[in-house]
Amino acid sequence: MIEILKAILFGIVEGITEWLPISSTGHMILLNEIVSLDVSDEFYSMFEVVIQLGAILAVVILFWNQIWPFGKKDNKEPLAKTGAGAYIKWDIFKLWFHILVSCVPAAIVGVLFDEQLEALFYNYQTVAIMLILFGVAFIVIENYHKGKKAKVNTLVGIDYKLAFWIGMFQLIAAIFPGTSRSGATIVGALLLGISRTVAAEYTFFLAIPVMFGASLLKGAKFLMNATMTSQEGVILVVGMVVAFAVSLVVIKFLMEYIKKHDFKVFGWYRIILGVIVLLCGFAGFIG
């Protein structure tokens, strides 16, 4: 029962931090230092990635009409006026092509260097430094853009060039835990002149192939080299279900929040948390 309660806690943290630009991986690493699950190291390495599938499902459900590229109803840009083409939403297909371009840099690095990067950078020092650096970045960028109008205010305005550069920012998060995948892509999008709302939506959609691919890769590696116990299976399912439920609430909150506020509060949170992590590490409480 204790392990189930821990799984619920991990699911809550995943559901909150996956979408807020404060680093889900960083928080999961830190949480595991404080409240570790009674599981094998191999399982936990897989768990902290595959639990994200629950969070992905929340995005799919909330934004279904904006991401499903088939159907005649509300088809703003059909491929053809009649026949099968009338059921293809070409504008959504183009969005997915752009998203795939954004996925390429992180996908290449993840497939080739996943284990090496985990061994090098998955520690409290890296998490703390990246929390602070991107916290400062949020504050500086928001101050710089204060009073200025965004150049891109719709998803349609994100072309292949912008998609590629957003993907390069996402690559930073793929290498350094504590950066935050959503944080890196939002910072990149803001620098490129994309509005907060569009930046947030795009990073939500970008998470679908990125997180699904990462989960598939981790899950496959685990099943090839280890066996999951029944307790570990329950922990995984509980974590995913809780992450899904919490993500539904957090995504709705964030989309309403950024209509009236900027991202500076998340920047200050990151800085404060990063400093606390460093102090705890120096004091020997984590590490």
UniProtKB/TrEMBL annotation:
It is a multi-pass membrane protein. It comes from the Bacteria. Keywords: Antibiotic resistance, Cell membrane, Cell shape, Cell wall biogenesis/degradation, Hydrolase, Membrane, Peptidoglycan synthesis, Transmembrane, Transmembrane helix. Catalyzes the dephosphorylation of undecaprenyl diphosphate (UPP). Confers resistance to bacitracin. Its EC number is 3.6.1.27. One of its GO terms (cellular component) is plasma membrane. GO terms for molecular function: undecaprenyl-diphosphatase activity. It is found in: Cell membrane. GO terms for biological process: cell wall organization; peptidoglycan biosynthetic process; regulation of cell shape; response to antibiotic. Signal peptide: none annotated. Bacitracin is thought to be involved in the inhibition of peptidoglycan synthesis by sequestering undecaprenyl diphosphate, thereby reducing the pool of lipid carrier available. It catalyses: di-trans,octa-cis-undecaprenyl diphosphate + H2O = di-trans,octa-cis-undecaprenyl phosphate + phosphate + H(+). InterPro entries: UppP (IPR003824). The keyword Cell wall biogenesis/degradation applies. It holds the Pfam family BacA. The chain crosses the membrane at residues 7-31, 43-64, 95-113, 119-141, 162-180, 186-212, 233-255, 267-286. This is Undecaprenyl-diphosphatase. Belongs to the UppP family. It is an enzyme of class 3 (hydrolase).
